[in-house]
């Protein structure tokens, strides 16, 4: 596991964007796994700058979102279908017909989840999976005690996650209780994983993911077993790490 500590969110965006670009270099049809939420915003902005500068072309890319709420309309501005359209598809120039988000509005979300998992495999798997981490250690919406072998499925959101995401909704009661999420087993099949985290409220989860035992109580800790995982964090998110001796700093702090 590579851990890169950056001075701020903008640098997190630049460093993680470089990792994403490296992961898809030479791929005719790169397959991206995309997260929503606040964490990857600076990463998407950095990718957008590369697209605008003509050094990155994602028009042939395929993309699969990590997750989607169950119980809100796909037209709701906070559905991940809409968030992915606003923050990924439009700014990065992806072809909307090549971008998929789990169908949380399906009459049979369980079947839709299984079909989504199969579609990722049929596309040849994900070249680079972009991830954030929840304050409780979740990745995707794999909440604590999710099976490490889990596939894309319907999950129940914990009260903590619903409180954390209430900032996107008018009221806590409006935050959906269920979701469809790629499983931990699905995420672990990605060829490269790039996880971004910023801010002190992620420091505990980052410490448990990076230094803690691999344990279902912190789903992100499974990335210790990922063959190519890169964790790009700012100093606040790194503030509880004890073993910074081993981690790579950028921005002139330290580089090994
Ligand atoms: C989003 C997702 C989640 C978020 C996590 C952190 O698609 O799967 O795991 O990455 O909840 O969210 P933010 O970045 O908003 O703090």
SSE topology:
Blueprint: E1 2-6, H1 9-24, E2 31-34, H2 41-52, E3 62-65, E4 67-70, H3 80-92, E5 99-100, H4 109-122, E6 128-131, E7 153-156, H5 159-165, E8 178-181, H6 184-188, E9 192-197, H7 203-210, E10 229-234, E11 248-249
Parallel strand pairs: 1-10, 1-11, 2-3, 2-6, 3-5, 6-9, 9-10
Antiparallel strand pairs: 4-8, 7-8
Question: How would you portray this structure in words?
Answer:
The protein has 256 residues and is α/β, with parallel strands linked by helices. Helices cover 29% and strands 18% of the residues. It has seven helices and eleven strands. The strands form two sheets. Strands 5-3-2-6-9-10-1-11 form an eight-stranded parallel sheet, with helices on one face. A three-stranded antiparallel sheet has the order 4-8-7. Helix 7 (203-210) links the parallel strand 9 and strand 10. Residues 35-39, 66-67, 132-134, 138-141 line the site of fructose -6-phosphate (F6R). Fructose -6-phosphate (F6R) binds next to loops.
Enumerate how many helices there are, as a single number: 7
List of distinct ligands in this structure:
fructose -6-phosphate
The dominant shape is globular
Distance between the termini: 15 Å
With strands numbered from the N-terminus, the spatial order across the biggest sheet is 5-3-2-6-9-10-1-11
